[in-house]
Design a protein that fits this description.
By secondary structure, this protein is an alpha/beta fold. It is built from 10 helices and 12 strands.
Length: 291
């Protein structure tokens, strides 16, 4: 885990925003703590109306010069990167001159998983005086607490599936693959890769509809945890109401995420959605084991 530098909190916080609600949950939490923010939404991934109430400047992926100028003018040093952005193919990117000067490094960035790419990206920014920090460092209240959110708790069978899921994620983590798996009755139904959690859950729903997952009733658990080598400044596993909806459509019994190591930006809504769907959402300790 990356620990916060002692002077985190100086000056406005720059938030590079991908899609979804997480960037705004982080921005609101930081503002409540008395720090100003400047949002840099990635064009095409963020609704312009959603950012209208914040100071903001739209940016494009890998066109670094605009961000550099505007963040510097705003007095930003610390940067948070959060939200959903589809990883582009290298040939699809339109670089500006500042990015082109780093083209050999950028090419190396794309020869690996997301954790590899983002860590090198951070180093490029930090060489120019910026500093990437984790969303959990500036807004620790967004981290998943231990225990259930909502009324339901996992059964002994569910806890056995959770333990298997945690063990599987730990085993595949060094390959910089996904951060989520689905396990039902000790059987691995899916491993997250490039498609992301929502599409993985949609795939499980399709398999159930085709009769290829035959477990009766709500069976199986979505398990999410960071990779063992995860750079905690980026891409911590996250859940929200849409994750609950996807798990319910997939016929799962619930969702388990690593407490203190995953983001839940809307816990009240997540708990209410889980109760309506009849599933559990719980935060598990790093050493969670089945019976």
């Amino acid at each position: 885990m990356t620990t916060a530098p002692p002077d985190v909190g100086e000056g406005p916080l720059a938030i590079i925003c991908g899609g979804g609600t997480l960037p705004f949950a982080v921005a609101d939490a930081v503002i409540r703590r008395g720090r100003s923010v400047v949002l840099f939404p990635v064009r095409g991934w963020v609704d312009p109306q959603a950012v209208a109430r914040y100071p903001h400047h739209f940016i494009e992926m890998f066109r670094y010069g605009r961000f550099h100028r505007q963040a510097t003018a705003a007095g930003c040093r610390d940067v948070v990167l959060i939200g959903k952005v589809l990883r582009p193919a290298l040939r699809q990117i339109r670089f500006d001159w500042e990015a082109l000067r780093e083209l050999p490094t950028i090419i190396r960035m794309f020869r690996g998983g997301d954790n590899h790419l983002l860590s090198i990206l951070a180093r490029l920014f930090e060489e120019r005086g910026f500093r990437f920090v984790g969303a959990h460092e500036v807004a620790p209240e967004i981290l998943m607490p231990q225990g259930p959110i909502g009324r339901r708790e996992p059964s002994p069978r569910d806890r056995a599936d959770i333990a298997r899921g945690v063990a599987l994620l730990s085993a595949i983590g060094p390959f910089d693959v996904g951060q989520a798996v689905v396990v039902a009755d000790n059987y691995v139904l899916a491993v997250e890769a490039a498609e992301g959690t929502d599409r993985m859950l949609a795939r499980i729903a399709e398999l159930r509809g085709e009769g290829r997952v035959r477990a009766a009733g709500r069976t199986g658990v979505l398990v999410k945890a960071p990779k063992p080598t995860q750079d905690w400044r980026f891409d911590l596993p996250a859940i929200g109401p849409s994750t609950v909806a996807g798990a319910a459509r997939a016929g799962l019994a619930g969702i388990a995420v690593m407490a203190g190591a995953a983001i839940v930006a809307e816990p009240a809504e997540v708990g209410a959605a889980a109760d309506r769907a009849g599933i559990f959402v719980t935060g598990i300790a790093p050493d969670e084991r089945g019976p």
